[in-house]
Design the sequence.
């Protein structure tokens, strides 16, 4: 699941922290309740307050089973660890500030529904089941962590009522542990955090071309060979050395622990064993699973591998054995069998496979894939499980097994593929790559982390279309949920995973849980700062890309400089300093472009009305060097295609550099380049290992005048007059950045309005990336 990604301040400060109200409620008289995802019905009382102090009691009424007790204990621990209020369980009849009333006949909607009343009796959470009580406990915790809260201080909760239940049954994250592995403890932390945004499914992508992570005792070489790949590129930072393979596999005990931990938080773990493509690691372990009989290496590239499983009886017995083990380890009623991105070149070239296709009276290899997947799906159905898989066969005009839940990632053309799957009678999970693939870039900021294009901004995630145009009401009923993808080709670490998921997960939560009647971007933005504060208190390293200040710098007549500041969502208070100090919650609020003398340094950060930081500090020097320099991320690609951001080699100290580059085409444009009189140029660049799989077909090779690769700079067009050539020498891939400088043959003339910058050589022998380009007098 990777090549798919390559194909293809106006809000008033007074609005921040307010709650989106249901019809009939008055924003002017309502107390502030900042809740996310937005509950179905919120009715503030307009007067009255409950004070929750340390030592306050928590009681349980109605059903007092072990599951409900675990929910309440979890709530008490969370309030203590995050809010700093030590609550205590009390017996029935004793005074309680928070009460959980769990009864099968409770007047709430469904098993996940709950109600909350805040009045003179304290906070009362009502639910039919422990599951509903859990989601009520999350909202109660949010009531105790409203904007401006202080750890350990009394929580003041305004009177009112909440009635709530989810829109969709499937509210999911997909976690890719094949490309890069996360420890069992890290996965448990992610499960804990996602459950607090009321997500309830983790699709665990545990096998792929780059590694088989599922233990199957009957096939031990899946763990000894299929789980190990050569440490190419940044993988050596995880394995420990380039000579040390990247070997990772989960134990059955670890899986069991993760499944139990998730169940306590009402998260279903759905394993994904991808078939018949994305199977190179399995074939590397057992070559007879493939078509050619040869043993490939476990793949070190990204993209779509041509190594498919052989769709014969022996392979199907292997698949049945794997499914048996998956069903033993995972109690989920759902098992994902993949079915995506099956490059059939090996099948097409095989006389044996062609003969099988004809014997089955099938028209083409797509139909053969459909036949194979039907065998797997039927086996799962016979064993009481529901198969789940991707929509690729529907996109190709074919049909999937009737019993299959379809995860639809083809979001283009008004969700035509999802609509086709609905009309075939499938339940559908909406997971469009265009807005819900969270490994994608969040911004074009120079300091954005590594990830594939195109950008998936916070707003794009929130605006995801969950009902395809043209779907009638009866068809729309078969949309069972939404899902975001955390594909890990470029996410080496759990810190990167957190950056990718948070806070976009808040947008996903609102899509999956909240009623469409409450869907409102400005209301979401108003409530988001409180959630960001909770993330921070939980220790989540959330991205600040949506709120990060950006700078547009220009020179004014007379030598002064103009700096215009903004952020992606155009919300929050951008506060700045120019005296060398760090901006804080009381620093000057930016309201209009600044005009400052040359040499000034502007430091800026974004804050919520309660003073909470929404971004880290960014700074910009206002001088000629800034105007005459460009970070690679601020250059455009020559083709106009959005660039990937690729991570460079880790330095001895500090973070790894990240480069913006179109894979296979090391060419950039600097439009509106105005550096008349410049006489020297400095380039920082790095040669990255080629590991981009099927992107090799589109690679652009540029001839060099010399033996080695070089950076060439041309005026106005890529075939325009050459401004400079900077030989790059014999740099090797992943050796780290190099710095080259050259004197221009002649100073930059006044008629130079743009620059084309490209690296010569074959990118498949090493992908050059520009870190920074600077001109000097």
Sequence:
């Amino acid at each position: 699941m990777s090549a798919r990604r390559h194909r293809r301040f106006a809000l008033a400060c007074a609005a921040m922290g307010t709650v989106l109200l249901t019809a009939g409620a008055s924003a002017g008289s309502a107390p502030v309740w900042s809740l996310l995802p937005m509950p179905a019905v919120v009715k503030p009382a307009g007067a009255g307050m409950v004070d929750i102090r340390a030592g306050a009691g928590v009681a349980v009424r109605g059903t007092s089973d072990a599951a409900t007790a675990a929910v309440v204990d979890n709530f008490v621990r969370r309030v203590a660890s995050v809010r700093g209020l030590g609550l205590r369980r009390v017996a029935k009849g004793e005074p309680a500030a928070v009460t959980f009333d769990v009864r099968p006949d409770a007047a709430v909607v469904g098993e996940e529904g709950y109600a909350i009343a805040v009045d003179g009796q304290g906070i009362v959470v009502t639910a039919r089941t422990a599951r509903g009580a859990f989601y009520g406990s999350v909202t109660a915790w949010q009531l105790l962590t409203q904007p401006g809260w202080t750890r350990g201080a009394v929580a003041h909760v305004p009177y009112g009522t909440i009635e709530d239940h989810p829109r969709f049954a499937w509210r999911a994250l997909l976690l890719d542990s094949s490309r890069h592995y996360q420890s069992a403890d890290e996965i448990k932390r992610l499960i804990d955090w996602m459950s607090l945004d009321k997500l309830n499914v983790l699709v665990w992508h545990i096998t792929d071309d780059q590694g088989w992570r599922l233990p199957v005792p009957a096939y031990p070489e899946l763990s000894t060979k299929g789980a190990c790949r050569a440490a190419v590129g940044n993988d050596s930072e995880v394995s420990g050395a380039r000579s040390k393979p990247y070997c990772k596999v989960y134990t059955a005990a670890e899986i069991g622990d993760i499944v139990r931990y998730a169940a306590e938080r009402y998260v279903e773990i759905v394993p994904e064993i991808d078939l018949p493509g994305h199977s190179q690691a399995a074939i590397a372990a057992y070559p007879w699973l493939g078509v050619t009989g040869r043993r490939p290496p476990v793949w070190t590239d990204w993209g779509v591998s041509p190594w498919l499983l052989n769709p014969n009886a022996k392979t199907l017995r292997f698949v049945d054995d794997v499914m048996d083990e998956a069903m033993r380890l995972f109690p989920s009623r759902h098992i994902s069998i993949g079915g995506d991105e099956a490059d059939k070149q090996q099948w097409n070239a095989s006389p044996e496979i062609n003969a099988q296709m004809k014997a089955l009276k099938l028209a083409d290899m797509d139909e053969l894939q459909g036949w194979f997947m039907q065998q797997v799906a039927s086996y799962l159905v016979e064993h009481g499980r529901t198969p789940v898989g991707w929509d690729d066969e529907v996109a190709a005009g074919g049909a999937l097994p009737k019993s299959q839940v379809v995860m639809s990632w083809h979001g283009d053309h008004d969700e035509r593929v999802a609509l086709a799957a609905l009309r075939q009678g499938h339940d559908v999970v909406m997971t469009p790559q265009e807005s819900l693939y969270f490994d994608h870039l969040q911004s074009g900021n120079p300091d954005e982390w590594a990830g594939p294009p195109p950008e998936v901004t916070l707003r794009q995630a929130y605006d995801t279309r969950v009902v395809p145009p043209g779907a009638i009401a009866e068809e729309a009923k078969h949309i069972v949920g939404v899902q975001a993808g955390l594909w890990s080709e470029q996410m080496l670490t759990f810190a990167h995973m957190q950056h990718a998921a948070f806070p976009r997960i808040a947008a996903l939560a609102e899509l999956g849980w909240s009623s469409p009647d409450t869907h409102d971007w400005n209301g979401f933005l108003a409530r988001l700062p409180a959630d960001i504060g909770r993330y921070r208190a939980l220790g989540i390293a959330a991205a600040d890309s949506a709120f990060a200040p950006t700078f547009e710098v220009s020179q004014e007549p007379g030598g002064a400089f103009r700096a215009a500041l903004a952020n992606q969502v155009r919300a929050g208070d951008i506060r700045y300093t120019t005296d060398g100090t760090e901006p804080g919650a009381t620093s000057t609020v930016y309201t209009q472009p600044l005009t400052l003398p040359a040499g000034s340094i502007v430091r800026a950060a974004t804050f919520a009305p309660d003073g909470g930081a929404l971004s880290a500090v960014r700074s910009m020097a206002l001088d000629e060097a800034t105007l005459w320099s460009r970070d690679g991320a601020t250059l455009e690609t020559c083709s106009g295609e959005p660039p990937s951001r690729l991570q460079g080699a880790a330095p001895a100290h500090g973070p790894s550099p990240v480069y913006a580059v179109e894979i296979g085409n090391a060419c950039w444009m600097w439009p509106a380049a105005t550096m008349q009189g410049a006489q020297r140029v400095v380039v920082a660049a790095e040669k990255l290992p080629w590991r981009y799989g099927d992107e090799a077909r589109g690679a652009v090779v540029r001839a060099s005048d010399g033996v080695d690769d070089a950076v060439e700079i041309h005026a106005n067009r890529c075939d325009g007059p050459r401004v400079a050539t900077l030989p790059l020498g014999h740099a090797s891939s992943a050796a780290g950045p190099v710095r080259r400088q050259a004197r221009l043959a002649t100073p930059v003339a006044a008629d130079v309005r743009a620059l084309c910058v490209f690296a010569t050589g074959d990118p498949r022998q090493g992908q050059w990336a520009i870190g920074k380009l600077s001109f000097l007098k």
About this structure: Residues 236 and 242 are 5 Å apart (CA to CA). DSSP finds 20 helices and 37 strands in the chain. The chain has a mean pLDDT of 93.
